[in-house]
Amino acid sequence: MNIEFKTIGFIRTNASTVPRHWTISDVRGEIIIDKEYMKGLKDIQKGQDIIVIFYFHISPEFAVSDLLQTPPHRNERLGVFSTCSPMRPNPIGMSVLRVVDREENILHVTGLDMIDGTPVIDIKPLTGLKKDTAL
Amino acid sequence: MNIEFKTIGFIRTNASTVPRHWTISDVRGEIIIDKEYMKGLKDIQKGQDIIVIFYFHISPEFAVSDLLQTPPHRNERLGVFSTCSPMRPNPIGMSVLRVVDREENILHVTGLDMIDGTPVIDIKPLTGLKKDTAL
Q1: How far apart are the C-alpha atoms of B109 and B117, rounded to whole Å?
Q2: Mean pLDDT in residue range B85-96
């Protein structure tokens, strides 16, 4: 079964490189949401953490050999569903970003681990979860 | 920009109804992953919490009037990106499920808030997050 999603916006950042994971990122940037969806942002508050679902748009196509991968900071081959690798059966990413400010259709955020131009698919509240500060 | 994803498996449960959110669910069931991706499950452990990304396959098509919604347990109209509603620009869901057991391509899980037959798109580790037990 194929499922079609559409971009609802994209990431904008001046950073030329980003960390491998949002947990270790203080990179700032913006989420530019298409104006047609702007109303849906109205309850997102300054200082709030949000879940951002996005598309790994420059990842190479997934191959069977990617089912096991050695993450950059690990010393073992892990099943892809236990990693955050962008090479996965569906190249879909999930990051938790801190909202620094909101103006109209733009969320100013910090914690970026996606590059400039990354297509955004969804934004969700962090309901039932919190950051693991023990990291 | 349109993005095409494919189903990597589906949810199976005997429950005829499920709670509105995984935080208040103890519904059991299975995630049946297509055998071609089975190897990618190898490091998922019994007792572990996993993030499951799925498709709200029976949601009505999104309309502009859905940009603001009153969630069932709330008394105010919220922007869709501050809700977990299945009616969203891209009908994509995210739940945190507890793995009770794993055998071959099947994960036995608890905490289901998706119905029998729900298409699964991705599984991720809960890196950097933990359940908010204050709820």
Answers
A1: 15
A2: 97
